[in-house]
Design brief:
about 35% helix, 2 helices, about 60 residues, single chain, two-stranded parallel sheet
Length: about 60
């Protein structure tokens, strides 16, 4: 099975990791040529942190 994830933000990358963990071949498409810090803050609720921990990408 193959999937395309549009957007390399936190949601798109988390989805790609989850799909790969279950054996799906994933292609992530992102508009910007390089992902970098933009100086914006990010707040995550406890359920989001738990989900990222389950994916193994909490740090």
């Amino acid at each position: 099975m193959r999937a395309v994830v549009i957007g390399g933000g936190i949601g798109g990358l988390a989805a790609a990791v989850a799909l790969r963990k279950i054996g799906v071949d994933v292609l992530v498409l992102e508009r910007v040529p390089q992902i970098r810090e933009v100086g914006a803050g990010l707040s995550l609720w406890s359920n989001a942190v738990h989900a990222l921990r389950e994916l193994g990408v909490e740090d």
